[in-house]
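Entry:
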Amino acid sequence: MFKRIIVAVDGSDAAKHALTVACDLAGKYGSEIHLLHSPQVETSGIAVGSGVVEIKPDHEEIVAAGQKVLEEANTMAASEGREVASSIIGENHPAADILDAIKDINADLVVMGRRGLGRLTSLILGSVSQKVSHEASCTCMTVS
């Protein structure tokens, strides 16, 4: 039924639960698991005189942080008895990265955690899971 499962991971508890669910499904259906992480850059600002200087992490720091998230997810999948077919670090908005990966991998299922309730448009689902579920060409499962 599900040959290729993408799991969106960000290190959150919801993403860890999504990975556990995906590993269970992969065991039942003999599916491949593909991990995807889209690092979101958080900047810092320093007040200098009457202005603010934005400090962004460099590309290497972003990639290293993304690899750490994926390594933790690989370890977790292994503890669930599953081998990961691929680990992808996205470079765009998480929803865009997930939608691109669905096409590239020809995924049958994407499993992702539900995000916090930030805005009125996101009362039920987070903005990423909401966008993916509306635009994906495969089955979407959102877990909390």
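DSSP finds four helices and seven strands in the chain.
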